[in-house]
Amino acid sequence: MTSRIQEVIPDELADAVESGGVTLVLSAPGIGTSRHLQPLCQSVEQLPETTAVDDQEPVIVEDFVSAVFDLEDEPLSSYTYEYGEKSLFSRSGGAVLVTRPRSFDWLCRSDHGVSGSFIETVDTVLLVRTPPTGAAAAVDAVRQRLNKRSPPGLRDDERAAVLEQARYPPYYFDTPELQQHLGWYDATVTPAAFLSLSKYDTAEVLFPDDVGRAFGDRDVSVGPFSEAFADAVSRLVPSGGLPSQRPHERSPAVLAAVALVTVGLADDADWLEPLARYRVLPTTAEGLEIALDLPPGTVDHLRVFADDPARALIRDRLADDADEESVVDAARDVIGQAVDALHSAGPSFETMSMGPEEYGTSPLVGAWHWDGPQALHDAAAERELPTPIRELEGTDDETDPDWRSLVDGDELLEALDGGLVVLSGPKASGKRQLAASLASELADWGATVTLPVLTRPDHVRTGIEATPNAVVVATYGAEPAAINGDDGVRALPEWVDDGSCAGAVLICDDTNRARLEDVAERAGCDELAAWTDRVEFSVAESIADIDREPATVARDLLDAIGWNEIQSPSRRSIDVESVTDQSTLAAIAGVPDHALDGEFVGTVVAEAVDVISTTHGPAAAEQWLSFIDDLVADVGRNRTADSDESLLYRGEVYGTAIAAVARANPRTDEWVHAVARGVLEVTNETAAPHGRESVGGDVEPFATAFTGALARLAQPPDGSRVNHGAIECVDQALHEMVSDDGWQFPLHFVYGGAVGRIVRRADDPAAANGGITTIVSRVRQHAMSPNDRYTMGVLGSSFASMLGAVAGIECSPEELSAWVADIESRAREAVQIIIDREVQRMTLTEFYVAGIGLWLFEHGCPDEDVGSFFDAVGRSMCHTATAFDLDHDPETFVLDGYGHAVRTIVQLGELERAELLFSTCHRLVDTIAESGQFETEQQRRAALHANALASFGDVEQDDPDAVSSYPYGRDTIPFDDSLGFEDWMERYDAAVTRGVAVDASTAERTQYLTEIYRETLSTHVQGFDADSDDGVTPREEHTWYAGLTDRIEARATTTDSVDDPVQFLADVYGEAAVNWATDGDSSRAQEWITVLVQSLRTSRESIDGPDTVDWFEAFASTDAEILAAVLTRTDVGERTHERLVEAVLSQIQAAAAAPDNPPHPVTYVASVFGGALALAADAPAEEVRFGVTEVLAVLQEAFSLEWIELERADIFKRVYAEALSQVGRTHTDVSETAEWFELVSTRIEATATKETPEQPAEFVAAVYVRAIFDAAQHGGDEWRRRLDAELREFTRGPYVDDPAAFLEGLYADVVVEGAKRHGPRRRIEACIEAVSESLQAAGDAELLRADGALGRTVSRTADTLSSVNVKNPGDYVIRIDHGLRRTGYETLANDLFEVEGSDEPDFPDGEPVSNTDGGRGSNPPEREDR
């Protein structure tokens, strides 16, 4: 294979690499090869890493020779042989192997599996160099990267000096094959090799020219590196630092470096220390390796091993080796000449090295501002407290502890190696000390730790990129290497991502952590892998322990602030040595602020008060107590950047202090007042302005202070006896400090919070009994009043606060239920002091309402615990509803409690709270529904949600302006995605199908949703009951009603929620209207009925699919139910009843006459009145007559029929027929309708004689024809027989002259109906079978001749149909003929319809082709059936 050999300049390198092939890149050190290849593809440092790169993508091996040296446990041929398992030559994307000319030459001459012939196997060899013609441009390019602005031009002498300084001499290959193909690598310039230098450096540097002067023409030869040599030396190899930088113990470069140090130690050589101290440029290192004939990379390892701790490790291991002399001899045999050369030239290093004051003047040297590890040590020292804050096991060094004792060392180093590590923790927790120790260790093992100034990160990045093994350390918002801007925060992960540094450490105090996250998000760090994959290490607070007594600290504090020495304390007069970022109190106590917990500081304050009170009264001590409070506030601010958390800390401090002061002097509350006055003033000063939320409802730190004090006193943590005098003292102070203006929120918050603290310290209710009982006794004492309403407010709110306070305790669900049950039992016992039973019930309702809707959130229950709390509260509500004698329906108690809780949340307008409740409330609903305390789970679940949805209407009634404004809620800003009141309703509506409802079938879900929305619009609406003074109406509370109807119609269009949208909407709106018509408050019923019916009619506009006839059948059915309900209502006044009836009748007429009503108006009217008349059959026996009478009376007297343009008799016929048909379809047991049928049949006869006195029999016949036909079609055989029996009785009466003719004509008309109606042929079959049976019964009753009765009847049918004016009368004959044959009357069919020369045609599937089923020439349906 012939390789393509090409010389390129650095800028041409990326373009010269051919995709898919293997390219060998040879370049001088510091020429910038990696930088120019970086955009091309992914690079790796180890050969095994190439397998992780996609085979279709090219891969760069950064230093091919080092990668070969570091290969272990597998042969090199796996990568270099064409058919090797991991061959670089078989990659589709190709590979780029980068190395230096001398390194590759040395490799080919060694025995590491690469020979000179390797050059013939690659596709391309690229010699990267800058020719003399491009040298000036290369220098200018580097100078441009060094400067923020365009640098001035160089004079000729300056340029000549720079080119000489940057010159890299030609390299002549020794390997024959390389000599043959390449000859030599020509001279070039390497100005980029100087980029890592800065004129602000402190280290001295050895330059390439120094090597030539030191070693001259000395001829040095080392080797060979035998297995025996490797075995002897490799066990001395030290290791440390970043995992990827740890030396491979059998690498030639590592072995050579260890051997040099070993012999140097044995000879006590003076050249080790200078080699470790001086910086060596890449070109210098290669010059040394050439001069001493050392393997490539030896100098980098030698500089690490020549210095401590590596040198000490080599010395120790050598001393421990039993064959120390033989090891030294083996090393000397291989590298003896190199050692001799170093012995000779070593002393000259001191004079040849160059300091920054000299090399800093070079145009190729930058001005990078960065500090080293010492800056971290200095910063850590500034933050150390006067007494040791760390005492680590296994070390006597208190000032510089082993950083591995603070974090997992291996884990941190692994994360830092090529990644970003974030060190966080409280101030003075040891983060900087950890970072300083880590930085020192990394520097000892060859890393360059830099703390750069990141105000202009793009500028300093050039120096970082050029610095080998650079690890960057910075601090957010503090020193050292402070980052304050977006660019600085983004720079660290960006540099890690692109390989500019080997890793980065970002230090951040906890107080700055929230700001760091905000800045990182703003800077776009989330798009950087190093940021998203960062590893966090938190330095725990527990490393600082307080070993001083609070009384001692209190005395030191008073001494420091000048107690009894000066008149007034001030910060200028404080006598204590300050500590950076730590408070005065921390400096006095000798521990960092984060270790000063509230209990310790509170005890210090109490001890200080004890000292002060010996000589001063509370008034005289006020300025001293105020000053101490300022110092406490400093501690809180240093502990956290969150002002709210700082306030809570002060509350914790003064909770301890108040309790201690009260215990010390329980006979008076004046010192409690004096201590608490500070937190009261702070609470009033920091209270949020109106409309803005604050911690604890503007009660902090006051609430936390008194909560902690009462909890400590009621159940002392140390198990001591309860000091009731101290409790009385604190409670008295609490009541005196809370303003008596009716706003007693702080009192309830404190009592509930105190119980919560006691619960958190106890294992179970029994263990907490004493403490809780003490708090409850204070509440009961406060609640005692002759005014039951006042008592209700105190008990309801205080126990609700206790309920909310236990919500977030860490315990199992079973344990939480026990705590809730304990609070419940105490609440039920406490309400016994209320005399009025109704007020007792209201108090217990408020207990649950406020507990769920307010105190759960005020006490900060974690989101993940809300569900378990709702489970427990649901069981508790059901238990209270059934176990306590409420003088009230248990279901109503539970419904009211849940609905009012939702109302409370919505009314407060806190969106986050509402969303949490809405997303979890199904747990509470399911628990109540499944409790077994109520009849049906689904109905109870639906009722709870209905009550909640209805409560939104109550909210609008209370504050219509807030509801109608956009967006809805407290402290909301109108953005595009803000939520209006209807959106809040939608959020809650989503909850109704969570939980158990998720697994319901579509039919079950439809029924469930129907119940919810129907009851929401009726029985659960405020004002539905007649005894309500005020109520919600759809027109007044329009926003609520519109939002609810939107949700209902949205559900109707969702196939997985509703299977029949028309029926669903009719059931929801129609049944809700019926509820109002039946039981709703009379003053609001008319409006509700009108609006609900209108909503049903307009809802069809949003529903696609259903036929218009389906809609109007639903409308008619709804109107019928409403009419029946209104007519039979007896609990309203006469005038009110008349108005209701008039409104409903007007509604019916409007619907019947609507232009888009498909049937004739008479059909709609008949359906409505017939349906209303039929509904009377479902009434109790004693109300049947009333229902029938009322419907018929309205039809005859109150409802105008003139507009229908039909005879009244025809209208009544249809009404009666519809009523009979509906009853027959809905009642399988005929006996249930006996009374109704007797009444209606009598009224049919009476109406017939009144409306058609000349032909009453025809009227009756018309009614029964339709009813019998309907019964035949729907299989109502029993009902049809009952109709037949009534007909036979009528036939015997005075209105029928010829019974046989009358009955045969009537049954003939039934068959006519079957023939004329469109649809399946089974209709005519059913009619014929029914008529045959009816004729037989009439014959048995001797009302007609049984023989031939069916033939005569069918003959009448044929005669009737032959005279019908239609397009194709013969079609009816075909249907009758078909019906006779299918029902077994084939002979009769032949006699009546036989046609000469023709037989019955064969019809597919037994169905004849009939024009009555549509098509050309078909008979149109009658108008009333359309």
Q: Beta-strand percentage? A: 5-15%
Average pLDDT level: 87
Number of strands: 19
Which word captures the global form?
Answer: elongated
Which ranges are low-confidence, i.e. pLDDT below 50, for 5 or more consecutive residues? 387-400, 689-696, 1395-1426
Q: The biggest beta sheet, please? A: 7 strands, mixed
Structural class: mainly alpha
Helicity range:
55-70%
Could you tell me the radius of gyration in angstroms?
Answer: 49 Å
| CA-CA gap between termini | 92 Å
Counted by DSSP, the helix tally is: 61
Description:
- Residues 1395-1426 are annotated as: Disordered.
- The protein is mostly helical.
- Helix content is 56%, strand content 5%.
- It contains 61 helices and 19 strands.
- Helix 22 (457-466) links the parallel strand 15 and strand 16.
- Helix 60 (1370-1382) runs antiparallel to helix 61.
- The longest helix is centred in the first third of the chain and has 22 residues, at 324-345.
- The chain is elongated and about 150 Å long.
- The model is unreliable at 387-400, 689-696 and 1395-1426 (pLDDT under 50).
A few lines on this structure:
The chain has 61 helices and 19 strands.
Topology:
Elements: E1 4-8, H1 13-16, E2 22-27, H2 33-37, E3 42-44, E4 59-61, H3 64-69, H4 77-80, E5 95-99, H5 101-109, E6 124-128, H6 135-146, H7 156-165, E7 167-168, E8 171-172, H8 176-181, E9 184-185, E10 188-189, E11 205-206, H9 208-215, H10 227-234, H11 252-267, H12 272-277, E12 279-280, H13 282-291, H14 298-305, H15 310-320, H16 324-345, H17 349-352, H18 356-359, E13 370-371, H19 373-382, H20 409-416, E14 420-425, H21 431-444, E15 448-452, H22 457-466, E16 470-476, E17 482-483, H23 486-498, E18 503-509, H24 513-522, H25 529-532, E19 535-538, H26 550-560, H27 584-589, H28 598-612, H29 622-639, H30 643-664, H31 670-686, H32 702-714, H33 724-737, H34 745-761, H35 765-783, H36 788-805, H37 813-830, H38 837-858, H39 866-883, H40 890-908, H41 911-929, H42 937-958, H43 960-964, H44 981-989, H45 1002-1016, H46 1038-1052, H47 1061-1079, H48 1082-1099, H49 1108-1127, H50 1134-1152, H51 1161-1175, H52 1181-1198, H53 1208-1226, H54 1234-1251, H55 1256-1273, H56 1277-1291, H57 1299-1316, H58 1322-1340, H59 1349-1362, H60 1370-1382, H61 1386-1393
Parallel strand pairs: 1-6, 2-5, 2-6, 3-4, 4-5, 11-12, 14-18, 14-19, 15-16, 16-17, 16-18
Antiparallel strand pairs: 7-10, 8-9, 13-15
